[in-house]
Amino acid sequence: MIIGPRYKIARRLGADIFQKTQSPKYALRVGKTLVKGYGRSEFGAQLKEKQRARFFYGLGERQFSRYVKKAIARKGMRDDEALYMILETRLDSVIERLGLAPSRQAARQYVSHGHFTVNGKRVTIPSYSVGVGDVIRLREASEKKPLFAHARDSVRDRESPVWLRFDGQKLEATVVGMPKLTRTAIPFNIGAILEFYRR
After folding, report:
1. DSSP state letter for 122
2. ∠ CA(47), CA(49), CA(52), 5° rounding?
3. Predicted TM-score (pTM) of this structure
4. What is the pLDDT of residue 13?
5. I want to staple 188 with a disulfide (CB 3.0 to 4.6 A). Which of 7, 52, 66, 103 is the partner?
6. Secondary structure (3-state) at 174
């Protein structure tokens, strides 16, 4: 997905959806410009939350819409928990959460270039969904590349999600559970998104 100018998007949707816009430089710049919004209607608020979620995960409209419909259709689980689980178990999201990539966009690129394996098999699809028992690892050949030269140092003090057991020395993670929705973990209202798609 081509995201476009992050500063411009963040002025409309909020600074917390991009890492680049969570800086003093952005705060200084946004103070000098008019912040635009989506209006005050309920529809506008729901649309804004949907856009925030899309840009946070770096997804296109069609792909995000498929995820929402899949979450709504899933039985035996609340819609909001199902959608959160679908988004968080994407391979690129897992790589970013572990600290092996500085951003989701970088994680998507790393996966596309084949730097990671799942259960010993090279995976090049960022949207690949991991499940309980899957083992995600940085390829041995990739460990020697300058891109990952300081990977062990960067993950040393990083706290990984409770549903992932991560070995920072081996650069290997095992999925030991499924992500549980906590409102503080995401910078958008997932309930408003589901209401938007139920219209």
Report:
1. E
2. 110
3. 0.82
4. 67
5. 52
6. strand
Q: What is the mean pLDDT of the chain?
A: 86
What's the pLDDT band for 34 if we cut at 50, 70, 90?
Answer: very low
With tokens 């499940």, the residue in question is 131
Q: What pLDDT, in 10s, does the model give residues 36-71? A: 556 678 888 899 899 889 988 989 999 999 999 999
DSSP character for 48? H
Work out the pLDDT band at 187, boundaries 50, 70, 90: confident
Sign of CA dihedral 162, 168, 173, 174: negative
Mean pLDDT of 172-194: 90
Close Cβ partners of 191 (under 8 Å, ≥ 6 residues apart): 80
- Exposure string for 36-66, b = 16+ CB within 10 A, e = fewer: eebeeeeeebbbbbbbbbbbbbbbeeeebee
Range 124-150 burial, b when 16+ CB lie within 10 A, else e:
eebebebeeebebbbeeebbeeeebee
Yes or no: say if 130 and 91 are a contact pair by the CB < 8 Å rule.
Answer: yes
Helix (H, G, I), strand (E, B) or coil at 74: coil
How many CB atoms are closer than 10 A to CB 70? 12
Rounded-to-10 torsion of CA 93, 99, 103, 104? -10
Q: How many other C-beta atoms lie within 10 A of the C-beta of residue 84?
A: 21
Distance CA 73, CA 80 (A): 12
Give the per-residue SS3 of 123-163: CCCCCCECCCCCEEEECHHHHCCHHHCCHHHHHCCCCCCCC
